[in-house]
Amino acid sequence: MNAALVKPLWAAIALALVLISAFSIIGSTHSSRSFYAQLQDLEAQRWYLEEEYSRLLLEQSTLASHYRIESEAGEALGLVAPGHDQTRLVAQ
């Protein structure tokens, strides 16, 4: 081959490889930033869900307290705890 044709051919190949590399880096950087933004959104959502879960646990413990159940049973259903004179001990 002619030496005058070989140098421009190698230069064109090198330029093509440099451009491919540059566009690959641009694509990789864009993907990385997109994934990082998605990660931040997911972490914010996780924080919100943990906060909501804590509120629900607190609400559940409040609603399930013995005092609340007893007062609701008394108000809504008219139930009262039996007195000592209304209880009997059954021996086996």
From TrEMBL:
Keywords carried by this UniProt record: Cell cycle, Cell division, Cell inner membrane, Cell membrane, Membrane, Transmembrane, Transmembrane helix
Main subcellular localisation: membrane
GO BP terms in the entry: cell division
InterPro entries, sorted: Cell_div_FtsL
Recorded topology in the membrane: Single-pass type II membrane protein
Domain of life: Bacteria
Subcellular location: Cell inner membrane; Cell membrane
Description of how the protein assembles with itself and partners: Part of a complex composed of FtsB, FtsL and FtsQ.
Role played: Essential cell division protein. May link together the upstream cell division proteins, which are predominantly cytoplasmic, with the downstream cell division proteins, which are predominantly periplasmic.
NCBIfam families: ftsL_broad
UniProt-listed PANTHER family: CELL DIVISION PROTEIN FTSL
Family: Belongs to the FtsL family.
Name of the protein in question: Cell division protein FtsL
